[in-house]
Amino acid sequence: MALAGALAWHYRPAPAEAVAAQAPAPLQAAPGALSEQSFEELLAWRSDGQWRLVRLRGQPAVLVLEFPNLLAQGRALNRAAALIEKGDGSRDHVPDDAALADLIAKGGDNAATYFFGHDYTATGLARFFNLALAQQVALNAEEQRLRAALLAAGLLAQGQGGLVSGVEPGALVTFSAVQPDDRSTPQDEGVDPARRASVLRHELSHGRYFTDAAYRAHCAFFWRQLMSEGERQAWRAYLGAQGYDVRNEELMINEMQAFLMHTPDERDFKAADLHWKPADLAALRDRFQLGLKP
């Protein structure tokens, strides 16, 4: 999801009026003085209703942003998700509010459940903000706040022709605090501690994929050389059903490694999702580990 993982870390819409009435909470700390936190430290945090932006300990090029709830996360990043990785979205046009709402509804989601976590490269986020400006797509308050925070943190920088990556390679991954399901909607907005931990692992694995060239090469070799075409097709079918753009092979590889190795909560991924037996999935996980350096 643009969800995440186990190797290195062991691993929907509110009424527009209501959203507009919610003033964004301040960042937990000034972006210029971001602390580094480990997976365990990130999980130990208990939300006080604020955004929390930190660097991943040992991998400072990976920024980790925890939102107080899924709706705040969706308001900040769903539009970028539609541009960058959703199969029904355009790779060249940023959706306006009406088009984004239509994409979300067609997928059976709401603004909170479109993604439980997000992950993007600095380059991808720079392109999103530049296209939105060029195409005169009005960004909401959370998106504007996110842009300012990423600039202040140095993940993005102002170039002569617009925003550019401030860290290369650099990445942003996000997850949310614990929250209950909204029983008035057909979607499941529930994030309990187990799901929160699973989403964070999944997203951190994307951060590693984006910033660790050796790990990225291992994932590509595994996909192209150690998996059969039938296995790849099973993954494409599964990821396509989740709304990912199956035409983007790198996205397929990245999401495969995150779901395969870094999503322990079976509510979000299990062997049956691939129409496989648990033993088949376990065997593929063992195969992934071959030759992998910690």
Q: What topology does this entry show?
A:
Blueprint: H1 16-20, E1 36-37, H2 39-44, E2 52-56, E3 59-67, H3 70-84, H4 97-106, E4 118-121, H5 122-134, H6 141-153, E5 156-159, E6 162-165, E7 171-176, H7 193-211, H8 213-226, H9 229-241, H10 249-262, H11 278-289
Parallel strand pairs: 1-2, 3-7
Antiparallel strand pairs: 2-3, 4-7, 5-6
Shape: globular
Q: Structural class per helix/strand content? A: alpha/beta
Compute the number of helices.
11
Strand portion, in percent?
5-15%
Averaging pLDDT over every residue, what do you get? 89
- Biggest sheet features: 5 strands, mixed
Rg, please?
18 Å
| Low-pLDDT ranges | 3-32
List SSEs in N-to-C order: HEHEEHHEHHEEEHHHHH
Strands across the major sheet, in which order? Answer: 1-2-3-7-4
Number of DSSP strands?
A: 7
- Straight-line distance between termini: 23 Å
Helix content: 40-55%
Describe it for me?
The protein has 294 residues and is an alpha/beta fold. It has 11 helices and 7 strands. The protein has a 5-stranded mixed β-sheet, with helices on both faces. Strands 5-6 form a two-stranded antiparallel sheet. The longest helix is centred in the last third of the chain and has 19 residues, at 193-211. The chain is globular. The model is unreliable at 3-32 (pLDDT under 50).
